[in-house]
Amino acid sequence: MGNRLIILLAIVLLTGCKGCRENNSVVPLVSVDFSININDASYFELTSITGWVYVTGGSRGIIIYRNNIDQFTAFDRHAPYNAEEGCRVFVLEDDITLKDECSESSWLILDGSLISGPAEQPLNSTARI
C-alpha cells in the first residue's frame, strides 16, 4: 500500500428514492475526485483503524472513515432528511455515530446505515476504497 493512499471518489450517489416521503428529498449529485496522503499531518486520524476526518468536497463536505488496514469509506455530509435545507452530518464524540444537526437523525459511521430519527435513508456513501 505504501506511504501514499490515493482516494478517488467518482460520483456521489443519490440518496433519494421513488416513493419516499416528501421530507426525504434528494441530496444533490456532485462529482468528487481527489487524493490524500495519509502521512500528511492533516490526515493523521486516518493512520489508525476507525479513524476519520472531514474533508472539503461533495455537497456539504465529506467524512472519510478507515474501516480496516486496506479499506476506507467516504460519506457526503449532506443530510438526506429535508435535503433542501442543506443540513450537515457530524461525527459524535463516541466516534461511531453520525448525527444530522437539524433533524437529529443518526447513522452508523461503519456503513452509513440509519440508526434513528425521522430520516428513512442511509447516508450517501461516495466510495469504498
Give an overview of the whole structure:
With 129 residues, the chain is mostly beta strands. The protein has one domain: Rieske [2Fe-2S] iron-sulphur domain (Rieske Iron-sulfur Protein), CATH 2.102.10. It is 0% helix and 24% strand. The strands form two sheets. A four-stranded antiparallel β-sheet has the order 1-2-3-8, with no helix packed on it. A hairpin with a 5-residue loop joins β2 (62-66) and β3.
Helices and strands in order:
Elements: E1 52-55, E2 62-66, E3 72-76, E4 89-91, E5 97-100, E6 106-108, E7 114-116, E8 125-128
Antiparallel strand pairs: 1-2, 2-3, 3-8, 4-5, 5-6, 6-7
Neighbour order of strands in the largest sheet: 1-2-3-8
Q: Any guess at the CATH architecture?
A: 3-layer Sandwich
DSSP summary, beta strand count: 8
Provide the number of structural domains: 1
Largest sheet: 4 strands, antiparallel
The pLDDT mean sits at 79
CATH topology: Rieske Iron-sulfur Protein
Computed structural class: mainly beta
Radius of gyration: 14 Å
Write down the overall geometry: globular
Provide key terms for this protein.
mainly beta; 129 residues; Rieske Iron-sulfur Protein; 4-stranded antiparallel sheet
Short description:
By secondary structure, the protein is an all-beta fold.
